[in-house]
Specification:
363 residues; 44% helix; Endonuclease III, domain 1
Length: 363
């Protein structure tokens, strides 16, 4: 077991990814990065991480920030409950812990939005707690190391992986200038899953520092990609809608979505259920106090959520001068859309279309 972690850590110290949150792994930095990396690729999270820290550099600033500020900083990352929970948790840290982020996984997991994996990642990387951070990456690696041929997405599989990694974690938790052994152990496995023990393809076993400990590689060479065993998922439900870019006097209509449900509390371009033909689109607009001077069909778009797929038809609508009292939408300026209102990436194709038109790339 000592050989296992020593070879893994030696490989990590030589090959670790350069990531901004690793440069100064304070508890807040690790926490923010781990929340961002839920359901988000590392490459996509880098810029958001730096922008978020520039605006909200610590727990107290996050706790004091408005929800709209947090959502706008998160715009495009998706899964907005993550940042809402993080703001709630920051308030709890200020109220219950005097602004000091708890230093054990047992305390961290009680905070909103922090589950078993995230609490272990923060506790090990920031505080040196001896606890594995088992996620999909580590489950995949475990399934190949131990030739685990049952469904990897079960509590039983998780418990076996947790026990396996706990047995092999360093017992020394002393923090050094290069992090701490337990935090480095977890991050080494994260990097191994990213660069070597790859998902959905043949792993690069020739570059693996712990291949000698891998049962699958030893007993069934060439069959490593058959693991882990994951049951087939259900198909995504399709939902069709019509999106309106309603324009007047240099402003564009937006509205706030309901407080519950998909994309709760975020802003959107007004939309109607179904893919409306022009005549029905005009009827919908008039029902919402918009008298179109001109209506033009623009791009179609799709957006895939975890369990649902949106298929969208778009219209650009020009209306005459408006009164804030009569139009049931917020008529937002370009600056307000860019800096104030959080419009999720589900509508990203229409935001891009607006930018292209503004820059005269389309007519």
């Amino acid at each position: 077991m000592k050989d296992f972690y020593e070879k893994l850590l030696d490989w990590y110290l030589e090959n670790q990814r350069e990531l901004p949150w690793r440069e100064d792994p304070t508890p807040y930095h690790v926490w923010l990065s781990e929340i961002m990396l839920q359901q988000t690729r590392v490459e996509a999270a880098r810029e958001y991480y730096l922008r978020f820290l520039n605006r909200l550099p610590d727990v107290s600033s996050l706790a004091e920030a408005s929800e709209d500020t947090c959502l706008k900083l998160w715009e495009g990352l998706g899964y907005y409950s993550r940042v809402r929970n993080m703001k709630r948790a920051a308030s709890e840290v200020m109220e219950k812990f005097g602004g000091n982020i708890p230093n054990t996984s047992a305390e961290l997991i009680r905070l909103p939005g922090i589950g078993q994996y995230t609490s272990a990642a923060i506790a090990s990387i920031a505080f040196g707690e001896r606890i594995p951070a088992v996620d999909g990456n580590l489950l995949r690696i475990y399934s190949r190391l131990e030739m685990y041929e049952e469904n990897i997405r079960t509590p039983a599989a998780f418990r076996k992986a947790l026990e396996y990694y706990t047995d092999r974690m360093p017992k020394n938790t002393t923090k050094t200038g290069k992090g701490n052994p337990c935090g480095n152990f977890n991050q080494a496995l994260m990097d191994l899953g990213n660069a070597v023990c790859l998902p959905n393809t043949a792993p690069e076993c020739g570059n693996c520092p712990i291949s000698e400990f891998c049962r699958t590689h030893r007993e069934r060479p060439g069959m490593e990609a058959d693991l882990p065993v994951i049951p087939a998922g259900k198909g995504k439900k399709e939902e069709r809608l019509t999106v309106f870019l309603i324009r007047s006097e240099g402003r564009t209509a937006v509205r706030k979505r309901p407080a519950r449900g998909l994309l709760a509390g975020l802003y959107e371009f007004p939309s109607a259920a179904g893919e409306l033909e022009t005549e029905d689109a005009v009827k919908w607009l008039r029902e919402h106090s918009v008298e179109p001077i001109r209506i033009k069909k623009i791009i179609d778009a799709e957006h895939i959520f975890t369990h649902k797929k949106w298929i969208m038809r778009g219209y650009e609508v020009t209306m005459d001068s408006f009164s804030e009292e009569n139009v049931p939408f917020i008529m937002a300026s370009e600056e307000e859309i860019a800096q104030k209102y959080c419009i999720p990436s589900a509508f990203g194709a229409y935001l891009k279309w607006m930018d292209l038109k503004k820059n005269n790339s389309i007519y």
